[in-house]
Amino acid sequence: MRDYFIGMDIGSESVKVAIGRVSDEGKLMLSEMFKMATSGVRRGVVHEFSDAVHSLSFVFNEISKFSKTAKKNIFLGVNGGDIQVRPSIGVVAVSRADYEIFEDDVNRAVQSSQAINLPSNRMILHSIINEYIVDGISGIKDPLGMMGNRLEVKSVIIDAFSPAVTSMVKAIETLGGDISGIILGPIASARAVLSKNQKELGVALLDIGFGKTNFCVYEEGKLIHAAVVPLGSGNITNDLAIGLKVPPVIAESIKLNYGSAIQKLVGARESVDLEKVDSRISGSVTKRFIAGIIEARLAEIMEFVNNELKRIGKLANLPAGVIVVGGGAKLPKMVDLIRQEMNLSCDVGVASYSEFEIENPSLVEKIEDPEYVGALGLLISGYEKNFESKPKFSNTKSFFKKIFKVFLP
């Protein structure tokens, strides 16, 4: 049995953890999942370092109960930090006289596509190869062994505000944790719930968290866009607290127990006795009024997303629609609201059991909970990048072919 490793999704309200290991047969085994409250984190970014470390200490105590070594192998999700997505192209001349493309040509093309000028306070999270082009012929996934004069590679570079990322890493390292990989949150979530067919047709993954909403877009099997909207389900809670004149903790309870994402689908005469929610509060409020506040904020979030889709020419133009995950996905009528506002089909994302095996049947409920998709996606991504058993190759050329295929989505 190999050591345990972790997918850790740190949000503004809670941290979700997925613990796994690699079996002797090389399969990913899901061993445990849990979540705990966080503090000192806002919109995916540490804003009070000591508070963040204090709250994460309880998470690490829980991890230590399960495995003493797991915290030394953490795959961390980045969900904030001013994410930017930049297309990039690298071009090189094929070096050999016979014009056959070898691994060194591919290496030079990839390095050329990654040679972008970034401010000193930005860091590259991902450099994702989408396709190769040989002498003007595009759509090539593996150019090794082909003949040509000119080799191009089209990449997507994703970068973030480095102080935001390093603060999160420092908080984890302060508690004795070690980071084995950093992955953009929506990309990890997409890995857990999106099928190859959905990515080929065109699909958006929408992750509605407490402090922010992440999303990414795939088409023709390629990642074409990703962004972070600085609004989440916590903004709905704040709106309810103001509108109902109740504390945020009460507003959160009302949202979860009596809320709806679409006002018109709520009966006009249905009401909530606030005293039953909290004995210190008197009066009543209609469920339609509650739903009106919720729908208004969600419509604003969807407007942000639609503006991003319009910018890349994909507004209401994704055949596989929208897959929604995150804690916000559990709000009643959320799927209907997204269909209404984005004019696309929508479903709640559920992880595929073909990606892993479970060691504890009690985990099934959490696996099917959209709130845990990020942590599970981080675990799957970490396994693929660092632990997945790879076959031995008979020669160097076929070995490098396999290596470069790994970088393609």
Describe this structure in words.
The chain is α/β, with parallel strands linked by helices and 409 residues long. The chain has helices at 49-66, 103-114, 162-174, 185-193, 196-201, 233-244, 248-258, 274-277, 287-311, 334-342, 364-367, 373-386, 396-406, and strands at residues 5-10, 14-22, 28-37, 41-42, 45-46, 74-78, 84-93, 122-134, 137-140, 150-161, 179-184, 203-208, 213-219, 222-229, 271-273, 284-286, 322-325, 346-348, 357-358. Among the domains are: 84-162 and 392-406, Dna Ligase, domain 1; 196-351, 2-Layer Sandwich (Nucleotidyltransferase, domain 5), CATH 3.30.420.40. The protein contains 13 helices and 19 strands. It has a 6-stranded mixed β-sheet, sandwiched between helices. The chain has a 5-stranded mixed β-sheet with strand order 14-13-12-17-18, with helices on both faces. Strands 7-10-8-9 form a 4-stranded antiparallel β-sheet. Strand 2 and strand 3 (28-37) form a beta hairpin. It is globular, with a radius of gyration of 23 Å. The two termini are 29 Å apart.
Quick recap:
This protein has 409 residues and is α/β, with parallel strands linked by helices.
* Biggest beta sheet summary: 6 strands, mixed
The N- and C-terminal alpha carbons lie at a distance of: 29 Å
The CATH topology of the domain at 196-351 comes to Nucleotidyltransferase, domain 5
CATH architecture group name of the domain at 196-351? 2-Layer Sandwich
Q: Kindly report the spatial arrangement of strands forming the biggest sheet.
A: 11-6-1-2-3-19
Tally of extended strands?
Answer: 19
